[in-house]
Amino acid sequence: MRKRNLLSVIFLFAILYTNAQQTLNQSMLHDGVTREYIVYIPAIYDGLNPVPLLFNFHGYGMSANDQMTVLNMRAVADTAGFIIVYPQGTLHWGSPHWNVGSWTIGSNADDIGFTEAMIDKLTTNYNIDLNRVYSCGYSNGGYFSFELACQLSDKIAAIGSVGGAMSTETYTSCNPLHPTPVITIHGTVDATISYDGTTPANSKSLADVNSYWANFNNIVDPPIISTLPNINSSDGSTVELSLYNNGDNCTSLEHYKVIGGNHDWPGSWGNMDINSDEVIWNFVSQYSINGLIGCATNSLIEHSISLENFSVYPNPLNSQLTIDIGLLEEKEFRLYNAIGELVLSGVLNAQISTIDLSSLAPNVYILNIENQSMRLIKIK
Fold first, then answer.
1. What pLDDT was estimated at residue 375?
2. Residue 238 CB: number of other CB atoms within 10 A?
3. Which sign does the torsion angle of CA 165, 361, 75, 77 carry?
């Protein structure tokens, strides 16, 4: 009887251990160099269903462990259920770096190949959704996320950059293979990576970066600009959001201009009005390599004009959303959050209907009316 009880305890322990959070230090030989990376597996990963993969690249002079512990995106992964990889850069002038041109000119690190090799290895060890592989990074890691979007776009669905930009080398050689969603977060008084592109040398301004990706994604409408609530009035900065909508494959850009912000990771230090971890994940997770998940067959460029006789406004919104369906026949609507969960549904039975969204948290949502989709952003 005691033996049976002991076996039951061991079996229970094995189940709990299997489902526990795991932080694994990994390495591989690539291009004749031993490359290291940290893999974070959330507790809810069970291996049965494919999950998204997010690379999170450190800044110049930092380490993978710095990126993991200081800029802690693990809490978001624990809730949303994606795997995070924190790669380690090789030395350049004595400091860990990512090979992006600009001040890293002269580096011979094959970081693109290293990233591709990590994807291949992780796919053999874990159940990865290869249509939902993302990259983000801080500073030099932000530059490298743009490099991946340009040179490894057959693997990368969407990217994010905090305190980073594009080098002129990345910019001029960029060759993405699909419309690419991009989110950028950057301080206007950043003294390390200047907002206007003057520092470091051979860098593009954030205006140039946003213009490049808006043009590449065929976004023709001007951005919708709004000031986000100044939740923390003591951090010395505010946030202006520019939302570029309706690109090919329903892609979009989001640019968080931190007015008065320095070389920070908002939510960890600097501006505290937004949480970069959550903002980045909420944005990129909407997309697969084929564009917005659930996007209608036709581009939202067409739908943004009339949504085939539907008119939706305002966007961004505070609490009330108005939908003009044009005709008096009933139309069903569904509203999804950034990770595809249904948060609201109903029937539009009047020509002009007003929906109260005041109970929903500020975030990006997907409105679906008769299999036509558009993005909404709620700012209060």
1. 74
2. 19
3. negative
Query: Is residue 10 in some structural domain?
Result: no
Q: Reduced to 3 states, what is the DSSP secondary structure of residue 142?
A: helix
Sort residue 111 into left (φ over 0), alpha (ψ -120 to 50) or beta.
alpha
Same domain, 164 and 310: no
Co-location of 238 and 331 in the same domain: no
For residue 126, the Cα-to-chain-centroid distance in whole angstroms is 21
- For strands 224-227 and 331-336, give the pairing: unpaired
Q: Give alpha helix (H) positions in the chain.
A: 2-18, 64-70, 74-80, 111-125, 140-151, 168-173, 206-216, 276-284, 300-306
Using CA atoms in the order 84, 107, 183, 27, what is the torsion angle rounded to 10 degrees? 0
Alpha helices in 81-205 (DSSP H): 111-125, 140-151, 168-173
Within 13 Å and on the Cβ side, how many CA atoms surround 6? 3
- The confidence score (pLDDT) of residue 19 equals 59
pLDDT of residue 84: 98
**pLDDT at 129 exceeding the cut of 60:** yes
Q: What are the tokens at 202?
A: 């051979």
Domain end position, chosen among 249, 272, 292: 292
The domain tally of the chain equals: 2
Q: What are phi and psi of 159, to 5 degrees?
A: -135, 165
Q: Residue 278, class by beta-carbon neighbours within 10 Å (0-12 exposed, 13-18 middle, 19+ buried)?
A: middle
| 319 and 200, same domain (yes or no) | no
> Are 38 and 181 part of one and the same domain?
yes
Domain extent, residue 330, equals 300-378
Write out pLDDT tens, residues 16-62: 344 579 999 999 999 999 999 999 999 999 999 999 999 999 999 99
Answer yes or no: do 276 and 325 share one domain.
no
Q: Is residue 71 part of a domain?
A: yes
Per residue in 284-299, pLDDT tens?
A: 998 999 998 877 533 3
CA distance 85 to 69: 13
Give the largest Cα separation in the chain, rounded: 75
Range among 129-143, 229-243, 348-362 rated most confident: 129-143
Same structural domain, 361 and 214: no
